[in-house]
C-alpha cells in the first residue's frame, strides 16, 4: 500500500517502475545537446502533416507506439493511458491516441503535465487498480504559439525572458514488475498546489512558475524529512535561466540551498550559445523528452542514484491573459531512483 507523508507527500512502499519510454522531437531539439539521445528526430516540424496540431497528434501517437514496442506490449495490455498537451480541449491528445483504444484519463497541468501524468499513473498502479499504465505528453512550438501568443507569420519579437516551447513528445510505460530491465523506480510523489505571486508577464513564465516549484520542493523536504544533499539532482522542467535564478533565491530565503544540485530541463535541452532560444525551453514535451532521453539514462548507468524530478506549469489561457489575470503556477514532484537499488 502507499503511505501518505505530511501535507501532500506519498511514499510508495512498493516502487512503481518505469518499464520503458520513448522520445520524439523536432528539428531544433535534434540540434541541441541531447540530439543523439532522442529516439526520433523529425526531418521537419510538420512531420509530414498538413497542420501543426496534426503534427503534434502524430508525435503522441508515435511516442506511445515506440514505448509499447520497447516493452514488447500491445495496446490491449495497457489498462489506462494518462495523457495531455497544451492545446484547447487537449486536441493533440484526443486526435493522436484515439486509434490505440486504451481507456484514457486526460490530464492538464500546463508544462507540469508530465509530472501529473506520471504521479497519477504511479498511484493507480501502486493502488492495485492496474497492472500497467502508459503516460504521454506533448507540445509543439508552432501550435503553442498559435494557441497562446501569435501565429508564426506575424513575426513578433520575443523578449530575452521568453522560453521556447519544445516540439516533442515523451511516453512512458509504468508497472510493478521486477527491477530487471526497468529504467527507474518511482518511490515518492509530492503533489503540487497552485501558487500565484500576481505576476502577469506571459513572456516570463519561468518567473511565474518558480514560486510553485519552490513551494513543492520545500514541502517535499518537510514531508519526507530530506534535504538538498540527499539528491544527486533536483530537476525542474521548464523554468529556464530566469526561473532558475528566482527558484534558487526563493529557496535560500526558506533555508535551502539547491544551487549545487539543481538542473532545469529547459536550460539543458538547447545550446544557449548556438541556438536562439533566449531563456531556454518549456512546454509539456520539454521535461518529458529530457526525462526519457537523458535523465533515465543517468539512473540506468548508475551515474545518479536518486533525483527529484519536478515539471513546472504556468496556468494561463488566452482568455485569462486578455482579461488581465495573473499567471498562477504549479509543480508536481516525483522521486526517481536507480532501478536496481
Total DSSP E strands: 16
- CATH class label of the largest domain: Alpha Beta
Q: Can you tell me the CATH topology of the largest domain?
A: Peroxisomal Thiolase, Chain A, domain 1
Radius of gyration: 18 Å
Q: Give a short account of the largest sheet.
A: 12 strands, mixed
The end-to-end span amounts to 20 Å
Residue share in helices? 25-40%
> At CATH's second level, what is the architecture of the largest domain?
3-Layer(aba) Sandwich
Tell me, what's the shape? globular
CATH superfamily (homologous) name of the largest domain: Stage V sporulation protein AD
Report the average pLDDT across residues.
Answer: 91
Q: Which class of secondary structure composition applies to the elements?
A: alpha/beta
The total of helices stands at 10
Could you describe the 3D structure shown?
By secondary structure, the chain is α/β, with parallel strands linked by helices. It folds into two domains: 2-175, Peroxisomal Thiolase, Chain A, domain 1 (3-Layer(aba) Sandwich), CATH 3.40.47; 184-337, 3-Layer(aba) Sandwich (Peroxisomal Thiolase, Chain A, domain 1). Helices cover 33% and strands 24% of the residues. The protein contains ten helices and 16 strands. Strands 1, 2, 3, 4, 5, 6, 8, 9, 10, 11, 13 and 16 form a twelve-stranded mixed β-sheet that branches. Helix 6 crosses helix 7. The protein is globular and about 50 Å long. The two termini are 20 Å apart.
Keywords:
10 helices; 341 residues; Peroxisomal Thiolase, Chain A, domain 1; alpha/beta; globular
Short recap of the structure:
The protein has 10 helices and 16 strands.
Amino acid at each position: 500500500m502507499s503511505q501518505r507523508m505530511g501535507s501532500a507527500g506519498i511514499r510508495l512502499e512498493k516502487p512503481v517502475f518505469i518499464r520503458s519510454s520513448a522520445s520524439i522531437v523536432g528539428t531544433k531539439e535534434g540540434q541541441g545537446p541531447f540530439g543523439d539521445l532522442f529516439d526520433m528526430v523529425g526531418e521537419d516540424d510538420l512531420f509530414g502533416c498538413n497542420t501543426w496540431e496534426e503534427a503534434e497528434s502524430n508525435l503522441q501517437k508515435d511516442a506511445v507506439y515506440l514505448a509499447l514496442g520497447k516493452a514488447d506490449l500491445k495496446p490491449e495490455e495497457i489498462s489506462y493511458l494518462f495523457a495531455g498537451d497544451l492545446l484547447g480541449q487537449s486536441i493533440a491528445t484526443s486526435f493522436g491516441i484515439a486509434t490505440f483504444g486504451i481507456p484514457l484519463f486526460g490530464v492538464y497541468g500546463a508544462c507540469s503535465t508530465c509530472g501529473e501524468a506520471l504521479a497519477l499513473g504511479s498511484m493507480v498502479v501502486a493502488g492495485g487498480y492496474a497492472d500497467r499504465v502508459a503516460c504521454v505528453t506533448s507540445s509543439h512550438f508552432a501550435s503553442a504559439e498559435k494557441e497562446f501568443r501569435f501565429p508564426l507569420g506575424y513575426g513578433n519579437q520575443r523578449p530575452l525572458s521568453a522560453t521556447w516551447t519544445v516540439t516533442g513528445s515523451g511516453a512512458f510505460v509504468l508497472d510493478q514488475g521486477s527491477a530487471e530491465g526497468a529504467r527507474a523506480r518511482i518511490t515518492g510523489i509530492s503533489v503540487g498546489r497552485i501558487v500565484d505571486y500576481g505576476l502577469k508577464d506571459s513572456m516570463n513564465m519561468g518567473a511565474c512558475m518558480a514560486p510553485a516549484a519552490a513551494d513543492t520542493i520545500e514541502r517535499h523536504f518537510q514531508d519526507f524529512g530530506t534535504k538538498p544533499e540527499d539528491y544527486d539532482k533536483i530537476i525542474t522542467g521548464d523554468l529556464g535561466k530566469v526561473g532558475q535564478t528566482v527558484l534558487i533565491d526563493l529557496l535560500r530565503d526558506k533555508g535551502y540551498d539547491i544551487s549545487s544540485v539543481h538542473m532545469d530541463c529547459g536550460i539543458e535541452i538547447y545550446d544557449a550559445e548556438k541556438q536562439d532560444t533566449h531563456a531556454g525551453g518549456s512546454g509539456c514535451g520539454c521535461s518529458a523528452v529530457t526525462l526519457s532521453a537523458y535523465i533515465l539514462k543517468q539512473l540506468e548507468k548508475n551515474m545518479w542514484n536518486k533525483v527529484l524530478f519536478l515539471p513546472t506549469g504556468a496556468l494561463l489561457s488566452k482568455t485569462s491573459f486578455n482579461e488581465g489575470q495573473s499567471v498562477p503556477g504549479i509543480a508536481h514532484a516525483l522521486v526517481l531512483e536507480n532501478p536496481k537499488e
